[in-house]
Amino acid sequence: MAGIKKIIHIDMDAFFAAIEQRDFPEYRDKPLIVGGNPCSRGVVATCNYEARQYGIHSAMSCAKALQLCPHALFVKPRFEAYRSVSNTIRTIFAEFTPIFEPLSLDEAYLDVTDSADYQGSATRIALAIKTRIQEETGLTASAGISYNKFLAKIASDINKPDGLFVITPDQGLAFVEQLPIGKFHGIGKATEKKMHQLGVYSGNDLRKLSLTHLQQHFGKAGVYYYHIARAIDDRPVKWDRITKSVGVEITLPEDIDDGDEILTQLTALLEKAQTKLTDKNLQASTLTLKVKYFDFKQITRSRTFQEAISEKMDSTALFKDLLKSTDVGTKKVRLLGVTLSSLNDLEPESVAKQIDLFSPDN
Amino acid sequence: MKFIINREQLLIPLQQIVSVIEKRQTMPILSNVHMKLTADNLELIGTDLEIQIMANIKFDYSTEPGEITIPARKLLDICRLLPSQAEIKFELTNEKMKVLSGRSRFSLSTLPAENYPEFSETPLENQFYINAGLLKVALEKTVFCMANQDVRYYLNGLMLNISNSKLRMVASDGHRLSVYENELQSPTGYEARIIIPRKGVMELLRLLDDPETDLSVQFSSNNIKVVIKNIIFSAKLVDARYPDFNKVFLQDFRNPIYVQRQILKDALTRVAILSNEKFKGISIEISPNSLKISAHNPEHEEAEEELFIEYQDELTISFNAQYLLDAVSNMDSELAVISIASNLSSCIFEEPVAQPYRYIVMPMRL
Asked: Which residues in chain B have Cβ-Cβ distances shorter than 8 Å to A303?
């Protein structure tokens, strides 16, 4: 199957609303709208599935939403919280593949073509990602699996929420043929209308139009439409090739508050992170310590140094110093992490060497 | 809470407090100044949890007591930009601090004082007295050698050592070291070593503008507190042992070289232009009656200067030009006395007449 890609599209279900309902139990089982004030000109950022039953959807004005469902709850977005969950999700993606492209806080494409996990089964990888997301964040996601970005994105929308749908290479074309034109990703309201004027209502209709014809009407986008009508989409998953940080963390088998044990764990984590960096021929000058307490409250403490972090650093003393301003020792800890960032290429041993007053070889 | 204050009474304490407040805060209340007003005293506090500055302003008329926190930087900007000698009226109403002066009116947000973090302090068992002028010189002659963001975090600070009546301060980034040693006015009867963190040292130095003031310094192994007239400076200390630095003085040194300080400084500055930008390496070649300074860079450009010295030995040694410049710039006499270790492993900078301070610069291998 050389040349055939395995792409997963992960889309969080009613992301903002789901986080609000997770954090505030009183919002559960009620139509919930995250967005602007219904008395002003605000719009719906996300609404939960209960609210969607009333015909409410994203980007609708809050005033209209209130009309459709007068007893809906309106809450202001807490982007800080959403970003934090989004970061967690991205860390999970990174566990499976370095090749992922976040589209927004709540969705991303992953290219698992070369992934050896789960015997290379993209479906099982997608399932594992969903499970990890559920475990880490308590939220559900929908996954779409296919051989290109376009189909993967359409697939994730099919069994939402908490869905998983696969479009295999031999189903691709048939799938696109029957798809209403408005459902095509990249075809919005305006283009849909234009398509209808051209007599295009489905993928099948779209396929009948020639490339020149499409280009005349839609310019550059016409080329894209021509290809997606044939279930062809060669856009690669754009991932960040440049490593910006290296992090390792450990969820402890049981919550601990023993300072020495925590120091031992941190030292081991730092060593692991350092090895990962050295393997990539990189060195770091910022160290960030992450602590998640038993109550899931999470804090980070970081320090930046002028030179690269190396073995000459007294890591125990440094960790002790960073832990001083935390509740470690009094509050039980469930997870510890160490991240190295501010990365530079590992420098070859320089010819000019400053002699150090405190170095043991003096 | 209500009081009237003259701009000049408030401005300087406020400036001193704001300088410890970090611009980026994890806790919003830390960007506020804590104001505590009693019948005849206004206490202002600012902290970053590592350092705290407290100022007391006395009133000779009665006020309406109260306690609140308000945005420090905004208040400072308001005070700074009001005309000199302006009377400023503060009035707390409905959780807003009204600041009124002449035709200007401001209403600042507040946060309750009970949420302001307590600056934890252990009992301060040690104490000594020192004149502000003397402490300022001692700090100025040492701080330039302090490390900044070094991985050996105990070097990012200043070591203070009290040995009965002797005061000693040491700073080092591992590449150079400064020591200041002087007698205190009276014996203390104890021996103690502490490390004051870099930011604390810099803030303290800023507070020592009046050389006539007598200061009281109190400390434990965790905290230090310096009372400077109506200002109280407190800092948490670096919890570590300062590395042993005495060995470096105990080596065998060659005969000292006497050099005109200004001439050396000028020559170094010029030669350094063509040194490697990153390492700033320069070579010093000494032959009878001559001291040659030279540098070259990756572009194969070269610089050389020759100074006349009365000296008979021959040697070649390399240094970071900036370290040499910092050392000679922090000396006062006309002549610099340079002693190089017999094995060329280090170099001492002193003055012809013994001074409380001296510097070590470690060489480079080029």
From this structure: 149, 153
The whole-chain average pLDDT of chain B stands at 94
The per-residue pLDDT for B305 is: 96
Q: What letter does residue A236 receive in the DSSP assignment?
A: P
Residue B137 burial (10 A CB sphere; 0-12, 13-18, 19+): middle
Phi first, then psi: give them for residue B348, nearest 5 degrees: -105, 140
Closest-CA residue in chain A for B281? A352
Residue of A20, A50, A101, A107 marked active site: A107
pLDDT of amino acid A167: 95
Chain B residue whose CA is closest to A302 = B149
Average pLDDT, chain A: 87
Distance CA A99, CA A7 (A): 10
Distances, alpha carbon A123 to alpha carbons A102, A113, A118, A137, A172, in Å: 19, 12, 9, 21, 16
Q: Do B248 and A304 touch (CB under 8 A)?
A: no
Of A307, A320, A351, the CB nearest to B151: A307
Q: How many residues does chain B have?
A: 366
Q: Which of B160, B78, B88, B102 is nearest to B127 (CA)?
A: B160
Q: Can you tell me the distance from the alpha carbon of A314 to that of B6, in angstroms, rounded to the nearest whole number?
A: 51
Low-confidence ranges of chain A (pLDDT < 70): 1-2, 240-242, 312, 347-351, 360-362
Report the C-alpha gap between B206 and B199 in whole angstroms: 11
**Smallest CA–CA separation between B65 and chain A, in Å?**
33
Is there a catalytic annotation at residue A249?
A: no
Beta strands A141-146 and A164-166 are parallel
Enter the tokens of residue A173: 């074309």
- Write phi, then psi, for B250 (nearest 5 degrees): -90, 5
What is the pLDDT, as a whole number, of residue A97?
87
C-beta atoms of A318 and B151 within 8 A? yes
Of A143, A128, A14, nearest to A82 (Cα)?
A14
Inter-residue contact A86 to A133 (CB < 8 Å): no
Give the residues across from B184 on adjacent strands.
none
The interface pTM score, or ipTM, of the predicted complex is 0.82
pLDDT by residue (tens digit) across A260-292? 899 999 999 999 998 888 777 788 888 999 999
Q: Which residues of chain B are modeled with pLDDT < 50?
A: none
Length of chain A: 362
Show Cβ contacts of residue A46 under 8 Å, excluding neighbours closer than 6 positions.
Answer: A14, A15, A16, A17, A33, A34, A35, A58
Residues sharing a CB contact under 8 Å with residue A106, sequence separation 6 or more, in sequence order: A11, A12, A15, A82, A86, A89
Q: Is the dihedral of CA B75, B76, B78, B83 positive or negative?
A: positive
Given this model, what pLDDT does residue A1 score? Answer: 44
- Which residues in chain B have Cβ-Cβ distances shorter than 8 Å to A286? none
- B117: chain A residues, CB-CB within 8 Å: none
Cβ atoms A17, A47 nearer than 8 A: yes
As a whole-number percent, the residues of chain B with pLDDT over 90 amount to 87
- For position A133, what pLDDT does the model report? 94
Alpha helices in A157-243 (DSSP H): 172-178, 189-197, 203-207, 211-218, 220-228
Residue of B nearest to A362 (CA): B345
Direct distance between the N- and C-terminal alpha carbons of chain A, in angstroms, rounded to an integer? 62
Distances (CA, A) of A298 to A81, A337, B281: 12, 11, 46
Contact B364 A304 (CB under 8 A): no
Judge contact between B272 and B297, C-beta under 8 A: no
Which H or E run includes B204? Answer: helix B198-207
The residues on A that touch B, with CB distances below 8 Å, are 303-307, 309-310, 312-314, 317-318, 320-321, 324-325, 350-359, 362
User: If you count residue pairs, one on A and one on B, with CB atoms under 8 Å apart, how many are there?
Assistant: 74
